[in-house]
Fold each of these.
Amino acid sequence: MTKKTFLGAMTVVTAVALTGSALVASNMGFKLNYQLLQPGGGLSADGTNTISLPDNRQTGLNDAKNLMDDIGFANILSVQKFIKSDNSLQSYTGRKGSLAPFALAAGDGYRVKMSTTVNYIIVGSDDPTLAYSLQGPAIGISADGTSQFAYNYHQTATDAKALMDDIGFANILSVQKFIKSDNSLQSYTGRKGSLAPFALVPGDSYRVKMSTTVNYIPSHY
């Protein structure tokens, strides 16, 4: 299915959702205009952005190469995924000498490094029954319980505190967002001395640090 065809189907589903139940609304298709920034202007240090893709992506968007092609290969330098076992980043550039493209997976967030600013149209739908495995520390599986989480478009948690509560506060140590202007991470713990919770933005992905493994089904509207 092409993006154009998918958007046509999405329009039909959205129209039904206007008079349907909350369940329909939580699984309806969506279109999100998400800006991926190039370096400069005090907005992005080196063109690195986080991105969150829907559970059900458009046909043909299966791996890092497909994502680069969909964004526009000339505009993007790399796609990176977070490796939980050692907290490293695996990079795919599509250029000579690059590793093979890695598969995209529902619930995983990614980093994309841009050379040109692109208003990228994300289309797809969220699956309100899909559980994401947010893993606590485990040898060979998760170094310290950190995952790069793809924030759901129709998720009811609107800030870092609400996300921690929805996952289960006793199971999670922090939520972190990527700050494009200096490539740092801003952390919210919900504990004494923490900064105020930051808002969650559709299209962004976040790091969550778990103390206990949770099979998490986000609350949807």
Amino acid sequence: MAHLDWLKVFIILAVFSLTATLSEGFVASSSNYILQSDTINFGGNYSTSSSYKLQDTLMEVGTGMYASSTIILNSGYQAMPLDIYLAITSPSDLTMSPITNGVGVSDGSSSLQVQTDNPAGYELAVRADTSPALISSGDSFTDYVSSFSTPDYSWNTPDSESRFGFSAEGDDLVSSFLDNGVSCGVGSQDHSGACWVGFSTTNQVVARASLPNYPVGASTTIKFRAEVGFNKLQTEGDYQSNITVTVIAL
């Protein structure tokens, strides 16, 4: 029987909408917060709907653009350019356990944390560089195929196939990775080892938040699984997959 020596997942990070860290230029701070800028006014609010996002202030004084031969000044809350802080931890490349005797399951997981002070939050997505995602020089695993339009609550591999896929767990999961204990895409629970889907070469969103989380941050764990069915003759060798994690500020 074949021995699958290694199943490796190389995780590549891509962070967009990262403009600046709040390491300098702030007006006040403590161990719990950093206040980058302040204004003098008596009111304001942050409002959103399905079609707009609005930040407003009331009775702010001294606003507008001022320029001379030596300076350009944008004064006032709305005129002020906002630096968004967006950071993600960098997980190590993952080496999954070998599948011996050509049949069985290999599991692995990788966790990361996102921090942002963006008022509209962030979005985290994953994608594979190749299709199928898990390949060797002469063979591959089939990308996991869900039985429904949402991820499968329980992992399933037919005896005649080999499959590779993932599930997600964490603080800000999108609805498709939440479950009710039976099905995914319904309910609000996050059972461990539930809601499996295959990788794609296009971004698949796994976590999203509509509020800032700095400095506490939010964690997401991606669980990987590969399985060779009992009647599947899988070619012996090293199998690898490059997975890109992308985080954007909304």
Amino acid sequence: MLDQEIAELKRRLIEYAGLVENMISKSVEGLVGKDHDLLNEVARRDEPRANDFEIELEEQCTILIAKFQPTAKDLRTIMMIAQMNNDLERMADLAVNIVESALFLIERPQVKPFIDIPKMAETVKSMVKDAIDSFIREDSQKARGVCERDNRVDEYQDQITRELITYIASNPSTIERSFQLIRVANSLERIADLSTNICEDAIFIIEGRLIKHGKDDLEEDNS
């Protein structure tokens, strides 16, 4: 019975992650395509749905722990789903931050061509998807691949920030628009960090190996 409940919990988690991926896609596509409707869809339709998912999953995790009093791997799995639920909620909020910046930017002249932000967003979306997959499939190799991609996202963020600072220095009238673009890049980088956190936890669940903060220590699993 508990196995079935956990399987359903995982299914809903996958649905939630899919919604968050779409929010990220639409927020950046709306920015690049200057699409008000797409951006408003994220803020008015997708964000409330994400909030509903977050509340539902939190309640279900609490109910399962109270009802079944799980131990060992089952308990760790439910606790990790609760943490991932938290992380997905924060990702959804960051996607809305991108929408807010995009709605400001599309009403004003473009500072520079959109080259790195769409590429950065594609990498980040793949990290979100693979982070959830690595947990569901118990695939520590895929989880490590996500952690490695975080460096690529950091490079995109640095490149975008450097370029925009150059634009600001040469044309101070771009300050506000440039800072909004930096906010978009920072939001994407934070989503990547949260994906990495999920993968670090997944590796611990799968292997009993702690890799947070640069550590890679084998932990004893007494289950």
Amino acid sequence: MVPDGLVPDIQYVLFIAPEEYYALESAELRSELGRTIGKMNSLLSKETFICLGPGRWGTSNSDLGVNVSYGDIYNSRSLIEITGAGFGHAPEPSFGTHFFQDLLESQIYPLAIYLDDSKTTFNRDFFYNSPNHLLRFLPDEGRLEKCLRVIQVSDFRKDHRLVLAMDDIKGKAVAYFTPDSLSF
């Protein structure tokens, strides 16, 4: 399931590293992560950002994915669920069904990335090697720094932003870099 849409001018990506998420030592720490995402949602309210993380966003069972409410992510422009063998229970994506109507009304695009699919390209270098700005925004969240990565797109490619393009007919989505001068 891929919606039809375009998210231009993405400046930040909130990325929850799946292996680090499932390595968190307690459900309480996973709940704290959800609250921290809510804080970032407020701090980035004037920026364009997307969220990527393991399993089902919005689930109440933190073993199945990221326990957040709609109020924690409503400023995001896309909610992307990552699934694949090797981390957690690798549940089927829910495409934000826990708050699907809210996502649609707010034009927040739900997507899923199947890392086990041979057609999937996932730029690990961008997600894992870009500087993490979490502590710049929330200096007291050091316990979550390995798990929650706040990526500023221009750190990876100077003077660029991301564009997320989705085509429901082809069932494909792609995120690509575009120079600031060509921003939509």
